[in-house]
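Weekend entry, working from home. Most of the wet-lab plans are on hold until the incubator is repaired, so I used the time to fold the two sequences that have been sitting in the queue since the last round of cloning. Logging both here for the record. First:
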Amino acid sequence: MAESTEETRILIAHLDTGLFAEIDEALVDERVMRIVARTTNADQTISVTSEVKPDVIVIDGDALELDAIHTLEKIFVQDLPVGSIILWAAQDNDSIRAAMRVGAEDFLIKPVDPETLLTAVDEVFKVVREKFPDGWAAPPPSPADAGATQDATAAPGAGKATGICSGKAGVGKTTLATNLAIALAKYEGSKTTLVDLDHSDAAVLLNIRPARSLKDLAQIADELDVGMVNSCMAHHKEGLNLLPGSTDPGAEDLDVIPFALLERVVNILRQTQDHIVILLPMLHGDEQLRYIELCDMVYLVATDHNLLDLKGTKTFLDTITRKHVGEDRTHVVLNQHSKDGFVSSEDVEKTFGRKIRWVLPDDQKLVTDSINMGVPFVLKEPKNPLSAMVIQLAAFTGGNEDALPAEADGKHGWWPFGKKH
C-alpha cells in the first residue's frame, strides 16, 4: 500500500502538557501529521471532536477527568470517521475488553516514546481510511444507522456461513475466497465478512493492513460481544470486512483457533452480516475439522492437474462428509482448469462420483496481476470469464439457485470439458 500524503489530524486528550510538547516537537520532521487540538476532560473531548474533525484521538486511559472508555463510546456511537489510541499505565484483561467493546483501534502502555506513538497513529489512520474512504467529507450517518452495530446482540442470527477449504495446498483457495467475498459485498450488496483462518494472506490480496486479529479475541473468548469482534476487523472500500487469524500475512505458525472461539465469533457475525466467508486452513485433527460444522455451505477447491491430487482431494471430501457436513451442503469447485489438460472430464467426475458444476478457467496472468496490484480480479476485470464465474458463484452463494450452472445439455451454462461424455 502506498504511503498516504493526506494530512493526519490528531486530537490529544491528555492532562500531561509534556506529552503534548514531545509529540509536537516530533512532528517537525517530514511526517504529514498535525495536532489540531488538546483536551483535558470528557465533555470537552466530545465537543471538540465534532468541531475540529480529527482523524485519530490519543486519549489517556488513566485520567478520571477524561473517562476514556465512556468518552470514546459517546463519540463512536455516532459512527464518525475517527480512530483512537488509549494510553494506559498498565493493561489487564478488563482494560482490553473495555477497549475492544468500545471499538478503540489500538492501546499502548506508558511510557510511550513519541516515535512509537506516531507510528501507531499512522497505522490507525490507515485503518480508519479503509473503513471511511472519504473521511469527514462523507455525509454524516442517519440517526437510524448511528450506533446500530453497538446495539446488536449475539443471539443466534440469520447470516449464512460459507466455508472455503481444500485437500491440498496451492489450489487457489485464498484467491477464490477473497474474490468470492468481495463479489458478495460488491455485486450482491450483501453485508459480508471474510474470516481468514489460513495464512492471513487475504489482507495482501485486498491491500489492507489489519491492526488486530482473532488472536486478540482468544483471551476474552467467554465475554465476546459484537463490539469486540468489530474492533478486530479491517475494512475494504467496497464494503467487505476482514477478520484475519493473524496480523502477519504469510504467517506459518498460526496457533490453532479453538473451536469454541470460532463458534462464538461466527454466531456473533451472523447477527450483523448477511454472509460470513470462512477461509479454512489445511484441516488437521478433530479440533480443526469441526470448523466445517459451522458452515451452512462448503466449497471444496480442487485442481485437475493430475489424478493423484484429485484422489487425495476425494479422500478429504469423504472425510468431511462422513463426519462433519452433509453431501448436500458441499460443492466441488474445480479451479485453474484448462481445456488442454491431460485429465478428462470422465476422470474428474468418476473420481468424485458427482457432477462438477463449478469450473473456473485458468487465467494465471489475471490472477497474478490482481495479487500484485492488491485489487481482486472480480473488481479489476469483472467481465473476464474467470471473474464472471466467481461473480456467478457469489450469486449462487447469495441464494440465487438459478445461478447454478446447468448440466451439459447443450442449452444452458458453460460445460467446461466441451462435449458431454
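Second, folded right after the first finished:
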Amino acid sequence: MNLLHKALLSIHLLYYCEYTMRLGVVTASTASLIFVVLIIALAAVAASYAGHIGDITLPEINPQAGAFLLLGFGLLASLVVMYRAHV
C-alpha cells in the first residue's frame, strides 16, 4: 500500500469517525483525536518516503515539508470534524 492509498484511507476513516460521532458512538473530541493520531502516523510514513520521492520528482522541496503539510491538513480536518459536531 503506497502513501496515496494510506492518505485516501485516512480520509475514509475521517468520514467514518464523523459518522460514528453523529450516531453517538464516540464524542467529537474522541473522533478528532483518532484522526490526529492517524495523520501523525501518516506524516511519519511521509517523512520516511519524502527523501526518496523528493529525489525523483521534486528535489528542490525540503523532505520534511510533505510530512508537515500532511500533519497540518490532518489537524485542520480534525477541527472541521469538531466544528461540524457542534453545529
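Plan for Monday: verify the second prediction. Residues 3-86 form one domain.
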